[in-house]
């Protein structure tokens, strides 16, 4: 066994840490943007950091601070946040086959973000079962702490950064979506995923161009989940009928 293989087997969390480093280029700029926006919306720096620590859901956090600042009722804020996170209805079952039997996995799902899902969907099948939890912990912890740290920077110094480099304020919001698309691009080779992602993008664009930008993301997420499970159910039914025809 080579030293590299031994290190990978004995310290899978360290492999996860190394493979999470490219994520920082997307996480930190957007987290800085969130910290700045949260403070400008009336939240304190500690409140902004607390939101990133406990909620840890990029789009939901931006929507949360915007709706609270606008005086929206709490129940409506909760409903909209849940709708935005409906995409996890697709994420969870798609990595579940690669998870080992452990009572810790439900707690670790706090670290399941768009980018962690895209990376896990590719990497978990390539790892030995005994290495998967360690790898996932390494990746998710680095991403989580980078998000919290970026939020703190944005809350404390975000205004000064954007004043000194105005272009930075324009670029930051696009860093995380761009990273997610890069990580998810290989999934377009799969017909089911290509249809699901294509339908989600089209629905979001239709709502956005018609002036319903706040509703575009949650509705597209729900529709994307329905498309995924609908096509999956049809494929299973077609396979079942094909099997019955051959047996009959």
Automatic annotation (TrEMBL):
Keywords noted in UniProt: Cell membrane, Membrane, Transmembrane, Transmembrane helix, Transport
Alphabetical list of InterPro entries matching this protein: Brnchd-chn_aa_trnsp_permease
TM region(s), chain numbering: 20-41, 62-84, 134-155, 167-185, 192-209, 215-235
UniProt membrane topology term: Multi-pass membrane protein
Pfam families, per the entry: AzlC (PF03591)
Coiled coil (residue ranges): none
Compartments where located: Cell membrane
Family: Belongs to the AzlC family.
PANTHER family, sorted: INNER MEMBRANE PROTEIN YGAZ (PTHR34979:SF1)
Protein name, per record: AzlC family ABC transporter permease
